[in-house]
Amino acid sequence: MTLWTAKDAAAATGGRIAGNWDANGVSIDTRTIAPGDLFVALKAARDGHDFVAQALANGAAAALVSRVPEGVDPARLLVVDDVQAGLERLGEAARARTRAQVVGVTGSVGKTSTKEMLRTVLGAQGTVHAAEKSYNNHWGVPLTLARMPADVDFAVIEIGMNHPGEIAPLSRMARPHVAMVTIVAPAHLAAFDSIEGIAREKGAIFEGLEPGGTAVINGDLDVSPILAEMAAAHAAQVIDFGEAAGTHHRLTEVTVGDTCTVAQGRAWRTPILFKVAVPGRHFALNGLGVLAVAHALGLDRALAIAALGRWHPGAGRGQREVILLDPVETHLSLELIDDAYNANPASLGASLEVLAGARPRDGLGRVAHGRRICYIGDMKELGREEIALHRALADHPSMRDIDVVHCVGPLMRELWRALPQEKRGHWTESSDKMAARVRHDLDAGDVVLVKGSLSMALARVVDAIRRMGVSPAGGNG
């Protein structure tokens, strides 16, 4: 299906074309480009113009450029003054022509998992467009919009930030009918003076709301009054969710099991019972926020609750898997909680709570009892309080139920030093060094959490744990 004709793309961007082509997708990466895509030659770590010839050779329909690369047929180019601005205009044009009801999501924690919950819940009642990854910045938002077909029923746009002033223009580009803030927590404190400053930046998502739009906010936070004030200034309706008395969508009881979380509450002025198929109180809370979004969109409540129960987190975001350690004795296994994509104090605390509630199995391996073990890496961009915030994890209530804590990075060394001797595992400066140890550290029956900021590359520890696994005898591998 054609997403952009040459004529339509030129009109959207104000660019110049010398030939006729049709694009059925938009890409910024030659490694993942699909035949028929429009390649956008952004300048990031490297200049995308250096890869235009490769993109066209790999099947791209055309390329969005600000100059004609040497040896490239001009008939397959859309030439604009500035490629980033051209991508933004393409996204704005896609937003203008769609019939979709648009949902914008931001928050210090849980943006991407909430986006995926929304994809599942809204997808049960219509067609949905959302980015396949965490595309939430100055190029990710317009790229997601530019890829949006005109005839989808819903779109979910994740909006993030690293510095003040980034969210409002992205929200104005997305023009959501419903805008949701999951939580405001210490993150990016290196760029903000206080948690209140982060709340005001997150609340700026409401500046892009369509007339008559709805704001959905977490009502449990110290900064919830800031969010409520900003929401009221731009939204026709404000719905708060949480566990606090008086919230419109309220959790009254949460039961965190080994494989799922069951929640009870009140919404739409009636009792509700719902499940998410992953352990974690924070998943239940964001799930309640998703149900509030569904309510704001006028969707069927029963279908929304049923769909929410089918959602599973993606890789690196709390995904759980069993690692089989013996091909014959298949009961010899450990459980991996892969949450290695990102970390800040709030998300790490939530993950520790999940680990503390997990159920190891005794009497299976070299160690007499199954253990709760975590590998945790530095939390980045926490500003002046970074050392104190790392040390404070030693006093987190969930630490009582965790057996061994392995730490990666110079900041996590502060936690390692603050831990009681009996819980202190290894400390290494890099994830590579820690990954080399996991085979000696783990045993059958253990439950293992891996968590850290993306730059700490804790995914290497996850990969090392997965490499411990074997296929069952007689299987296909």
Layout of SSEs?
Layout: E1 4-5, H1 6-13, E2 16-17, E3 22-23, E4 25-27, E5 37-40, H2 52-57, E6 62-65, E7 77-79, H3 83-97, E8 101-106, H4 111-123, E9 128-130, H5 140-146, E10 154-158, H6 167-174, E11 178-181, H7 195-203, E12 214-218, H8 224-234, E13 237-242, E14 249-256, E15 261-267, E16 270-276, H9 281-296, H10 301-308, E17 319-324, E18 333-339, H11 345-357, E19 372-377, H12 386-392, E20 404-408, H13 412-418, E21 424-428, H14 431-435, H15 438-441, E22 447-451, H16 459-467
Helix pairs in contact: 3-5, 4-9, 4-10, 7-8, 9-10, 12-13
InterPro entries: Mur-like_cat_sf, Mur_ligase_C, Mur_ligase_C_dom_sf, Mur_ligase_cen, Mur_ligase_N, MurCDEF_CellWall_CoF430Synth, MurE/MurF_N, UDP-N-AcMur_synth
Catalytic activity: D-alanyl-D-alanine + UDP-N-acetyl-alpha-D-muramoyl-L-alanyl-gamma-D-glutamyl-meso-2,6-diaminopimelate + ATP = UDP-N-acetyl-alpha-D-muramoyl-L-alanyl-gamma-D-glutamyl-meso-2,6-diaminopimeloyl-D-alanyl-D-alanine + ADP + phosphate + H(+)
Function: Involved in cell wall formation. Catalyzes the final step in the synthesis of UDP-N-acetylmuramoyl-pentapeptide, the precursor of murein.
